[in-house]
Amino acid sequence: MAESLSGKARRVLVVNPVGTDPWEESDSEYLHGLARRGTTVDLVHLERGPDSLESAVHEAQAIPNILRRVLEKGAGYDGVLINCFLDPGVAAAREYLDVPVAGPGESGMILASMLGSRFSILSVLKSLDQRHKTHARVLGLSERLASVIDLGVPVLDLQKDATRTVEVAVNRARLAIERDGAEVIVLGCTGLAALAEAIRKRLEVPVVEPLAAALKVLEATIDLGLTHSRAGLYRRPEPRKTRGYALPLKGARG
Question: Are strands 119-123 and 39-45 parallel, antiparallel or unpaired?
């Protein structure tokens, strides 16, 4: 196994923030195809959680179980990836862990901002449009966000009729390019990963698939020997118990 620039192979834990595993096999195949030599990718899903994340309620249900999963399974890993464009639990996981934690939403939007002056996000549902706009604003990218346009296809239906989903995505992307001036398209759900290449082939602007972006950001961060700062935003929380729910804070390295 090849070694990274940091002098060792990379082990990456990918947490699917849902309580089912229908994507685990396809996601594993996809990520292993993208990973650099020397990167081992392991996927886990939640013992309990929503079938998909399409609302604030789903996100609130998932985050405590994401953190439990990260702390139960993360020992010995060099980085963690939380597999959802909403980046649920990413900030909290960074407070707990001493290894880098990547989120597809953040990684995809920052990468898009490097590829053109303005980017548009293809959201799955209209109810999520404002969430993505808020996320872009938190990242300081509001002025670079041309638009958020929804596909009108729930997460669990994205691959039921892949041909139709690709057609809708291409049409929405062209609207973002022609009407809103988007120079880059960001797929606003990692459930679109398997369809990204088919969408990309029909457009003349870069298409960022956020799960791939997050994996590559994580590999680079590991290779550079970097992780998040403890000086402010990601200061470690005070060790304390909350009634009926507690997470260990000792060491917290991966």
Answer: unpaired
pLDDT tens for each residue of 109-164: 999 999 999 999 999 999 999 999 999 999 999 999 999 999 999 988 988 999 99
**CATH value at residue 140:** 3.40.50.12500
- Neighbouring C-alpha atoms within 13 Å toward the C-beta of 94: 19
Measured CA to CA, the distance from residue 17 to residue 15 in angstroms comes to: 6
DSSP annotation of 242: B
Domain span at residue 14 reads: 10-103+213-223
Q: Do 181 and 122 belong to one domain? A: yes
Choose between 31 and 244: higher pLDDT: 31
Closest CA to 172 of 191, 157, 188: 188
Helix runs in the chain, H state only? 24-34, 56-73, 90-96, 104-115, 129-138, 162-180, 196-200, 210-223
Whether the Cβ atoms of residue 118 and residue 182 lie closer than 8 Å to each other: yes
Q: Are 16 and 24 in contact (CB under 8 A)?
A: yes
In this structure, are 45 and 141 located in the same domain?
no
Pairing of strands 207-208, 119-123: unpaired
Residues facing residue 252 across a β-bridge: none
